[in-house]
């Protein structure tokens, strides 16, 4: 099968099947072999690996994955793409295509079945509207994951990688960094896709920590505090937490907890590190 990384081959397949792009599925297919090579290289895929690909499209990246991995499972929601994938992946015996919404797939079960429950690699050029639920779903449901190498909207990649003090720093940065080490691998301009998206994209790799980045006695409370801090970004942390219906501590208790951690009572959430949020949740947890 011809390399779909070459635009003329992608066009030929799309024409042959009279394929209509579906906006609701975020369909922007990669047509740049250099970007495909970069993703495969960043994911560090070897012949030992089982790889889950989310949203294979017409199978462009899937071909590259099949060339490098032991086994690939590709989950594609759009049933119109299934006959195309049958043709474009015909030459590979190490791939299974599942026609399903990834949010409905039992990924834990898949990792068990295909990889004996050992950590899997996830690679995807994601539809941007479900980036966060997919990534957080993988982390929160404790799927055994080694790394996630994904194409996302550039701004989202920057938010995932941001640290305290940056305008991009927020609940997504902290959630991702609690579970993994993010690293932006490359920026990818719209002309690397067909059709061209309106926004810039970036490849980011999230390497899962062996154990969570910080120790917290109450993970749920820590994330409640994080969300409340960034919901009202311009308010002080004391006011932001005090205004949150999810957190019942009084203003005095919150101020007292900050003092105990050696933090200024007028501090804003955006100045706190993940460690400080963990400590704060440990102290506040005793009042609730
Ligand atoms: N991987 C291909 C490539 O790089 O050219 C296609 C990437 S395109 C940005 C996203 C793909 O994800 C599309 O094929 C789309 O149909 C599929 N998709 C969208 N939502 C999905 C979902 N919930 N579950 C599985 N696949 C989905």
Walk me through what this model shows.
The chain has helices at 7-16, 33-43, 60-68, 82-88, 107-115, 131-140, 154-161, 171-179, 219-231, 237-242, 251-260, 274-285; strands at residues 29-30, 50-54, 71-76, 95-99, 120-125, 145-153, 180-188, 193-194, 201-208. It has 288 residues and is an alpha/beta fold. The strands form two sheets. A seven-stranded mixed beta sheet has the order 4-3-2-5-6-9-7, with helices on both faces. It has a two-stranded antiparallel ribbon with strand order 1-8. It binds S-adenosylmethionine.
| Beta-strand percent range | 15-25%
Low confidence ranges: none
Strand line-up in the sheet with most strands: 4-3-2-5-6-9-7
Helix content: 25-40%
Mean pLDDT: 94
3D shape:
elongated
CATH architecture assignment of the largest domain = 3-Layer(aba) Sandwich
N-to-C SSE series?
HEHEHEHEHEHEHHEEEHHHH
Please tally the β strands and state the result. 9
CATH superfamily of the largest domain: Vaccinia Virus protein VP39
Instruction: Output the CATH topology of the largest domain.
Output: Rossmann fold
